[in-house]
Amino acid sequence: MKVLVTGVCGQLGHDVVNELIRRGHEAIGSDIAPLYAGADDGTAVTRAPYAQMDITDAQAVARVLSEARPDAVIHCAAFTAVDAAEDNEDKVRAINAGGTRNIARVCKALGCKMMYISTDYIFDGRGETPWTPDCTDYAPLSVYGRTKLEGELAVRELVEKFFIVRIAWVFGVNGKNFIRTMLSLGQKHESLRVVCDQIGTPTYTLDLSRLLADMIESEKYGVYHATNEGGYISWADFAREIFRQAGMATQVVPVTTSAYGLSKAARPLNSRLDKSKLTRNGFAPLPAWQDALSRYLREIM
Known about the structure:
This protein is of the alpha/beta class and about 300 residues long.
């Protein structure tokens, strides 16, 4: 199978290309940079074919995809800086909504599969009940959430053979994330204030990439939720476990989102995602987040 992966210079795209190549597929990485600009870690992705593509340029998208003629597109590229998005709504919408629509149009024309990576931020985070994949009670609180939802709707409208996979709290080797931030700050401070009322589950891109490859090899289309297993936690819980596994004495001081008060964009408090649809459709769940964290720390420390 030939698969084009957008956002290859990011955390998820990097691991997805590596996983596809490991399975013997022909993977093409794509991003806005002239050349691959992700982690130069010597893995297969650094040697894979690369196609520069600005997803906001409809003609460029049509040209690149028509020349590549992939069997599937895994669309990882997105504007994900949630707070910065509040001051750049037009740019964010052009990428997350417009760029996704551009890709979806060409996937429809080529008759190929499309996988769109979405987010828990399409929900408003009310209550404590986990959100199911088929829930349509959307009420995103931020520019990021609204534009990612607009991308979802474009995929549903235009593509017949689609997967929409909502994820949350992502961490991977190729990029910045909460774990790296905690490790860095924990070396400078004896204690850190961390939010305790936003509840969800982390997602390790290495584990997620395996699931996405399983999905794209199938024809079990639809909307899915995918994070690591291990139970729902707060960011403060996650920070405590990071420091424990890293052998650091940094203390975590739990604070509410309102008391923390440093974020420009509103975050959903309830990011619990119901992942039971994965097993119902024959996909293996991701390992526990505690185990994923342990493996990740061995990679970066």
